[in-house]
Predict the structure.
Amino acid sequence: MFAYEFVRNAYLAGTFIALACGTIGWFVVLRGQVFAGDALSHVAFVGAIGAAVVGVDERVGLFVLTLALAGTMGALGRRAQADDVAIGTAFAWVLGVGVLLLAILATSSGGASGVTTANTLFGSIYALSAGASVSAAAIALAATLFVLAVTRPLLLSTLDAELAVVRGVPVRALGLAFLAALAIITSESTQAVGALLLLGLIAAPAGAAASLTARPLLGVALSGAIAVGAMWGGLALSYAIGSLPPSSAIIGLAAAAYAICSVTARLRHHARR
Amino acid sequence: MTATLSPDPISDLRQLLQFPFMVNALEAGTIVAILAAVVGWFVVLRRQTFASHTLSLMAFPGATGAALAGLPAALGYYVACTAAALVISRGGRSAGRTYGGETATIGTVQTVGLAAGFLFLSLNQAVLGGGESLLFGTFLGVTPTQVLVLAGVAALTIAALAAIGRPLLFATVEPTVAQASGVPVAWLDAGFLLILALAIAATSQITGVLLVFALLVAPPACAQQITLRPIAGLLLSVVFALLIAWLGLAFAYFSIYPVGFYATSLAFGLYVVLRAGLSLKRRRN
């Protein structure tokens, strides 16, 4: 199957996107920011439609809108963690604006909106070009390296913010930078996995890793490994079974890993008791 | 739509109520607004916005799954929402998990549902036809039968909530004390999630999956900025939701743009104004 270029492109982009989602996702789960990640991924969809209406490249809309939302959420809350009711109300409005843009797009260009919607919502990883997959891999790798570089201060500021302040960690700036990294990886992966399914790669591997171990570095590594495994397995599965969309296969494997890990963790917990 | 706004509000109103589809939409909007505002008051108090967002997205696998099996879409909505609520309550906070762990479960349930919906869609060989109305609602395509079913579900849900309201409030505000005085906290958590699932399945058929929040979260969030007293807060929340639904529908009727945009903008505007006003007032004191 690697004889085909589109498969090689999908594996290249997919591996690094999964790695980034897995590592960042571990911190997202630890910081209780899954809902923020979810809001970012839905807003990415509005960004893509907005770019189509204005007539600029899809990525411009994606990056601008997700980064703006990440900044707003960071600015609203203490420790750069916004309250979930505020997130909910704000992102419902952004989605409402998305509906408006969709209506404008439908009246102006007729018909094209359905395709844009389906692609940004559910992604099309087997349709990535060679250039797009290289740049996706590069951006994802950069986001992963950033998070790995700030792992220690980020951990400290998540687990004990006051101690972190005392030790001179710029807690607020770090929280903002983390949300920005999340926004970047969200916009980048939207094109591959899709806005609606991206959350699965962020939440499920991290949840699985967290139920296996409480040790931070091991957890991050496990989470990244599970995400990459789900990506490879999912791509192969959907290549083998024609009617299975790649996004569904990837998310299905990641969720299965989470289900198995959390059930075994619970059983072990009961047995110990 | 070629409606024009005249300076006379009475004739505008008459023009609005002249069409059966508008009357149906207003009836459905009213029922859904009351239901969402009442259930949503508990959602905001319990900080379960992420869970309710996830439940609202379950409409997608519900609708596509029902289409694949040849069943009515509404049935799919209810089945999928209830199933998701059961999974979330199993991995929920009663199991002594952290907030992060709980959100990981909810997030995973959400994407699994969406992935399943996408799979159903591709098995059905369908393009995302009607996908936008699924996501953003079909306010103006409501039938009289739908209104009747909605009214039934709303009555049932609100009655169930009224029955467990007092212990639920206790379990929400003081979970440890409630547990100690014999209130079945875990059962109440699960029961409320089921009520929420029913309410959201009903609401999202009308408002669309992505816009449930305009009625479910924003009105109670506004009400709780003003008062934390349960009865007053619930009433205020219903009033806000009705305002958002009615004005949203009326604006949409007199323009070419969709209800969802107006409803969410009104909801968000109200929330921002109230929050800013109250923080100004607090600063002055």
About this structure: Chain A has a mean pLDDT of 83. Chain A touches chain B through 57 residues (CB under 8 Å).
